[in-house]
Amino acid sequence: MSTASGDPPCPRILVMGAGSVGCHTGGLLQGAGAQVDFVGRPRMLDRLRERGLRLTDLDGGSQHLPPSSLRLHEQVPAGSQPDLVLLCVKSAATEAAAASLSDTLPAGTVVLSLQNGLGNAERAQARAPGLVVVPAMVPYNIAEIAPGHFHRGTSGQLAARSHPQLQKLCGLFARAGLPLALHADLRPVQLGKLLLNLNNPVNALSGLPLRAQLLQAGHRHGFAALVEEALALMRADGTEPARLTPLSWDALLRVLRLPTPLFRLVAARMLRIDPQARSSMADDLAAGRLTEIDALCGEVVRMAGRLGRQAPLNRAMVERVRQAEQARQAAAAAPPS
Ligand SMILES: NC(=O)c1ccc[n+]([C@@H]2O[C@H](COP(=O)([O-])OP(=O)(O)OC[C@H]3O[C@@H](n4cnc5c(N)ncnc54)[C@H](OP(=O)(O)O)[C@@H]3O)[C@@H](O)[C@H]2O)c1
After folding, report:
1. Is the CB of 88 inside a 6 Å radius of any atom of ligand 1?
2. For residue 173, how many C-alpha atoms fall within 13 Å in the half-sphere facing its CB?
């Protein structure tokens, strides 16, 4: 892991997918001196044109980028030569986003995938073979809590697979309050993040904010069971997931299974979450959008298949979330009564 710096004076960053992660990361980098181009959907760009970009966090950080400072685009601008692209679309949009980057950007442009799951960087690389796609891991939660207002509700350090271009930009990320941990092999970190993300479907189906959901024993034990099943598969596959909390994975499982009053005491640090923070899967479900369940529990089911084993709990969770997606979409399509 390294944090060398030496970034160019005004690095050019292109955010592909101006949503929670894209607006938050791109906005902080712009605040730290980068020239940032945001590519997003018209509904998001309209909000940013009207209100600008407000960025806050649970540590009290706050900044506002006025509308006139934002470079907003519906398509990757022709002639762009960014020093770094941040790929910030949801898993289902990876291929289309990678294709439009590939059509427009010079060969060799470095694209940092800030997406969850294990396979997004590889899928983007396959669709954009001339670009250099590098996986990253965002450990904290970002939500749009008001139009154009993005809030980081939990903590953690951004990580990425090491690449010379990222080493040059480490100073920029550090000034932006996003110190970048670079790893020769990011897979153990991605596996660790996948384990933590197994709480996303539990949170989405619970209908509760993250903190309240973790304080309910049934939901917490459900999360622990999904983690235990996936952890056994990762170990059978020969990789120990990186530890992303102060606890080892086995200790974390024991803590999650404590009775709630004890859990509240022992896990005080884990519970340092804004009371209103929810998983982005909860937001997708509420909005009637397809979720990333296939990139999370679905990935565990595929891992089991490759090993000739089963993952019944993660498989059942995929089915439950798919049913919830269909129910939301049917409700949204029904004529008003
Ligand atoms: N939010 C978090 O707390 C968090 C934390 C860690 C990691 N992540 C990961 O980061 C990734 C992004 O999540 P997010 O929460 O930021 O998603 P998001 O808020 O939905 O943002 C993605 C945005 O990109 C837009 N988009 C998709 N394809 C595009 C294209 N070709 N051109 C322009 N815009 C496009 C989407 O529009 P449509 O909705 O129309 O597709 C959406 O507005 C996911 O893999 C997620 O798992 C999120």
Report:
1. yes
2. 23
Do the Cβ atoms of 230 and 312 come closer than 8 Å? no
Domain end, chosen from 184, 218, 236, is at 184
How remote is the CA of residue 295 from the centroid of ligand 1, in Å? 14
Residue 133 lies in a domain: yes
Q: How many domains does the chain have?
A: 2
Q: What is the pLDDT of residues 80-122, one digit of tens each?
A: 999 999 999 999 999 999 999 999 999 999 999 999 999 999 9
Q: Are residues 166 and 85 in the same domain?
A: yes
Assigned domain for 6 exists: no
Q: Is the CB of 293 under 6 A from ligand 1?
A: no
pLDDT at residue 6 greater than cutoff 60: no
* pLDDT band at residue 284 under the 50/70/90 scheme: very high
- Residue 86 Cα to ligand 1 middle (Å): 11
Same domain for 125 and 270? no
Nearest CA to ligand 1 atom 38: 41
- Mean pLDDT, residues 49-59: 96
Determine whether the shortest distance from the Cβ of 254 to ligand 1 is under 6 A: no
Q: Is 96 in the pocket of ligand 1 (CB under 6 A)?
A: yes
Percent of the chain predicted with pLDDT > 70:
97
Name the residue at shortest CA distance from atom 30 of ligand 1.
97
pTM, two decimal places = 0.94
- Boundary-marking domain end, from 184, 206, 222: 184
Question: 324: domain CATH number?
Answer: 1.10.1040.10
Take residue 109 and report the two structure tokens written for it. Answer: 């442009």
Calculate how far, in angstroms, residue 16's C-alpha sits from the geometric centre of ligand 1: 9
In a domain, 147, yes or no: yes
Instruction: Look up the domain containing 22 and give its range.
Output: 12-184
Residue 81, SS3 per DSSP = coil
In whole angstroms, what is the distance from residue 110 CA to residue 96 CA? 17
- The response to whether residue 197 sits with its C-beta less than 6 Å from ligand 1 reads no
